[in-house]
Amino acid sequence: MIDFSYCTPTRYVFGRGVEEKVGELTAAMGVKKVLVVSGHGSARRSGLLDRVLASIGAAGVATLELTGIDPNPTDDRVYEGIEICRREGVDGLIAVGGGSAIDTAKAIAGGVVYDGDFWDFYEGTAVMQKALPVGVVLTIPAAGSEGSGNSVITRKSDMKKISLRTDMALRPRFAVLNPEVTFTLPPFQVASGIADMMAHIMERYFTPTDDCATTDRVAEGLLKAIIDEAPATMADPTDYQSRANIMWAGTLAHNGVCGCGRVEDWVSHFMEHEISAVYGVTHGAGLATVFPAWMTFMAEHKPPRVAQFARRVMDVTAVDDYEAALEGISRLKAFYKSLGLPVTFAELGIAHPDIDLLVERLHRNKGAVIGGYYRLSADDTRAIYELMV
Amino acid sequence: MIDFSYCTPTRYVFGRGVEEKVGELTAAMGVKKVLVVSGHGSARRSGLLDRVLASIGAAGVATLELTGIDPNPTDDRVYEGIEICRREGVDGLIAVGGGSAIDTAKAIAGGVVYDGDFWDFYEGTAVMQKALPVGVVLTIPAAGSEGSGNSVITRKSDMKKISLRTDMALRPRFAVLNPEVTFTLPPFQVASGIADMMAHIMERYFTPTDDCATTDRVAEGLLKAIIDEAPATMADPTDYQSRANIMWAGTLAHNGVCGCGRVEDWVSHFMEHEISAVYGVTHGAGLATVFPAWMTFMAEHKPPRVAQFARRVMDVTAVDDYEAALEGISRLKAFYKSLGLPVTFAELGIAHPDIDLLVERLHRNKGAVIGGYYRLSADDTRAIYELMV
Fold first, then answer.
1. Mean pLDDT across chain B, nearest whole number?
2. In whole angstroms, what is the distance from residue B175 CA to residue B386 CA?
3. Which residues of A touch B10 (CB under 8 A)?
4. Is the pTM of this model over 0.80?
5. Could you count the other beta carbons within 10 Å of the beta carbon of residue A254?
6. B303/B321 Cα distance (integer angstroms)
7. For residue range B220-253, what is the model confidence (pLDDT) as tens digits?
8. CB neighbours (10 Å) of residue B239?
9. Which residue in B has a C-alpha nearest to residue A249's C-alpha?
10. What digits encode the pLDDT tens for the residues A276-301?
11. Are strands A150-155 and A160-165 parallel, antiparallel or unpaired?
12. Considering only CB atoms, which chain A residues are within 8 Å of B12?
């Protein structure tokens, strides 16, 4: 284990009907007027957004709305939100949705109280120290942003997608988690969410740090729970218990507990971000394609933790590390395919991937050599992209 | 899963030399004068206490001391601390030690700002809503109080030992965790700490709530990590990595993550509290004796989760639940014995246990029928105590 400092102050309010508590939780943030940030209308159609607005209003907090946030959210909506907040004297943000709504709300929250361009934080030329308070009503278990201090935004001008990580400034004050609101999600979105949360765990699991038994076991346990619960949740969208277990696992996957005491990896996310930026694919589906390819490369170059993953998470019994690793990857791919997820470029809908462009963008954005578990050059990441063909 | 609301706002600062950061962390609590609560001088002898006092002083915060807190801490020292804080205008508490120092500091923190008798909170006749801020420098991984909102105090007049659980009031603002300060702990104390943290996980693991796959897997993972790391830490007290993994597991064992979404049990703790109260044994050693007996009773009366524990944590392969449960219990006892822990009254140093007295006290203090996993009458708890003979 390496040294760490870790704090996760978000209050998780979990269960049936908990969105009724949003008003009280919002008022407890000490705010007078909030901007409610949401996506493309499914929360409105289901009645959830109206219940949330009513609950906040009943608690004596005024509301404004910013709606229609796209998947892979972009900087233009952030600027728009900052402008609204400044003009209207908004002092808090409530996101109703998944990662896109939450990450947009977070970016606005940090940008409103900053004199410069909010994008400075994402480029790393400024460090975010403060932000307006943010609360979350989660509708899609996937991004884990409801419990993290992170926010991923894409700059529209060059489709540069950057993940900002803050220690405390962007951690939500509360996250309201009602598994019932996920019953109506399309199956592909549920499956992509599962791949996304698994990736959040695996990015932390694949570490160069030795001797992380405690964090390893927590990560392996969460992966196992997600894999065990996935078939029931795909078979019956209204199966409360499997939805609940997956929702909670998605939060723990990304609130930092799986990273305590170790260096993390994140190359698979970086590689997927370029695919999303160029081809506009669903993030989780992209990750289901990248991760097995990345693992296959590692089976050749640094197999021990891939083998440990195979044995402890995928129940592989092979003694040889390389053999165990390959069998584990094969089972992981089969699992993704069982959920209807792609594991090749073609299945992802990309018939002719421009691997040159992906590699060029990746290393331009992230550096010549990248990765925590194993350091990858452009030749290496090209080899991994080619494993996805 | 059942509904829950969960928040763990403590900042964990983990690693070598982190006690140097206590001053800065204390000042960040916004306090001017703190009472530093500690035990019987080992922290002073090792130089740790002086380093902590120097760090706090250098940060511009004045210090007073309350020393000599006993294991199984008692109300008299709490009253003494409350009196000091009121007289001297203390506005924060820093505990340097294990559960006894921390729980005493917490009780003082709640008592100072309350007009009545602090014991009201423990008896349940008042609900603690606020307390002075508490920071922790942990020296003994065991009680998990550094990350919990709980405090266990014994009333000296009748040796009534009560665990107070608060949602937020008593959660420490920070916990400084340096595995190196545990190198000099006596082996029996290390072993007892391991039994204590395992019990914190198992009290939550043995639940009547079905469908807790995510929380189950986290709990099982933590238990497995502790069991795997224990031999190395007993063999070499200066093995940083095993001490680090066990220390971190001890915090996660009791910060609530293993209880999310389910009813907990806690009968083994209640049964041990009476043994501690009457015979003054070490809490963790008492738990190593009670838990296998409790599980043996459950193998007869409600085996499923004992069997799951046996298979997933103790690697038992038996198909029959009863058979698996018994084999798991046998392996758990063997594990405790390998650490030098007692698993019978005699090994605990109690040649002639007064089981009548223990049963009478237990049900007088806790009610006629007790337990979350399985409801136990006085006849049942008597049978469990008898399994320890």
1. 97
2. 39
3. 7
4. yes
5. 25
6. 6
7. 999 999 999 999 999 999 999 999 999 999 999 9
8. 17
9. B214
10. 989 999 999 999 999 999 999 999 99
11. antiparallel
12. 4-7, 260
